[in-house]
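Hi support team,

I submitted a single chain yesterday and got back a structure, but I'm not sure I'm reading the C-alpha cell output correctly. Could someone confirm the output below corresponds to the sequence I sent? I've pasted both exactly as they appear in my results page.

Thanks,
R.
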Amino acid sequence: MGTFEYQAIDQQGKVSRGTIEADTAKIARQRLRESGHVPTRLDEITAAINSKDSPFFSRRISNRDLALMTRQFSVLLKSGLPLSEVLTILSKQTSKKRIQKIIYSLRSSILEGRSLSDAIALLGQTFPPLYKASIAAGETSGKLVEIFENLADYLEEKADIHQKIKLSLLYPVILTIVSISVIIGLLVFVIPEIVSVFESLEQQLPEITMALINTSEYLKTHGIFILLGLGVMAITVRLLLKVEKIRLAVHRLILKLPLLGQISTISNTARFTRTLAILSKSEVETINSLNIASQVLANQAIKQAVETAAQMVREGSSISQALNSSGYFPELTIQLISSGETSGNLSDMLDSTARYHEREIQSYTSTLVGIFEPVLILAMGGIVLTIVIAILLPIFEMNQLVG
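Hi R., thanks for writing in. Yes, this is the structure output for that exact sequence:
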C-alpha cells in the first residue's frame, strides 16, 4: 500500500490538500471522487524516496525535530503498538509537512514488508548515520525500544547544548552588527554633512579630522567594491576548503593554534565520545562504530585520525591505543577509554567523557562571550570617541579664533 499526496476541489469549489492511502493511484483517485472531491494532483510520496533530484529528502531533519520524533517513537513503541500504527499516530502528531511526508514514506516501506532500518536507509541522508546504525542494531538485538530511548536522550541533550550555545552567542552577534552599522552610518552619512560646513569656512582642519574625512570619502566611493571584494573572498575560501588537501591542512593548522585549537579538539572529542557511547550501548560492532563516529567530526584531521584508528583496531589494537597514536585526543579521554576497555564498562566511560567535554565547551563559550562583550564595547566606544573628537576639534579651534 502506498501513500499519496493530493490536491482536490470539493463540492463547494474549495481547494483541499492532504494525503490518502491506497494500493494504486487509480484507487486513490476513485476514493477521492467517492468522497466528493475532484483530484487535480496526485503524487505518491514513496516515489520521492528514490529520487536523487528531490530536494525534499536531501536535507537532514533538525536536531530538535528528530529528538521530538524519536521520543514519541520511544513512548509509543513502549506501549506495545505495532510499528505501522506508531507511524500513523506520529504523522498526526506533527504539523510540519516535511516531517509528515518522511513518516508517511517510512510507513509505506514498512507496509511493503521492509524493516525500519531499511526504510530509514531508503531516505538517503535524511537521518544521520548514527541513527541508521543504532536502529539496525536494535532490530538485530531485539532492543529497539531501549535504543529509541537512548537516542531520544542523546538527541534532546544535543539539541539543548546547541540551543544554549546559540543563545549565549546571540547577544554578542547582535551587538557587533549594530555597532558596525552605527559606525558605518556615521562615516557615510553624518560625517559628509559636517564636512560641508567646515569646507565653507575654509579653515585648516586638524590631522585627525582630515583622516576621518578621507576615511568617509573612501567608504562612500569604494564601499560597494569593498563589499564585493569581501563576498568574492568568502566564496573563494569556501571553494578552497572543499578541496580535501587544503581543508586537511587548514584543520591541522587550527589544531595548533593556542585557544582555537583547544576548543576544536574538545568539541570534536565531545562529539566523538558521545556518538561512540550511543553506538556502544546499541551494541554496534566496534570498527563500524568508529567509522560512523568519524563522520560526525567537523575537523578533517581528527576525522582522518579516527579512520586510521579504526583500521588499527581491525588489526588487533585496543581503541585507547589506536586513538592515542594520533596525538589529537586529550590524555584524560584516552585514560577513561582505556579504563572502560579494561573494566568492560566502555559505554559508561565514554558517556562520562562526553559529559565532561560538553561541560568544558559550555564553560569555554561562556568565558569567551564574557571576555568578548566588554572588549567589543570598549573598542566600539573608542572608535565613536575618536569620531566625536575629530568633529569637535575644529569647532573648538573655530571658537578660539572667534574669541
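A quick pointer for reading it: Residues 62-155 form a domain with the Receptor-associated Protein fold (CATH 1.20.81.30). Let us know if anything else looks off.

Best,
Support desk
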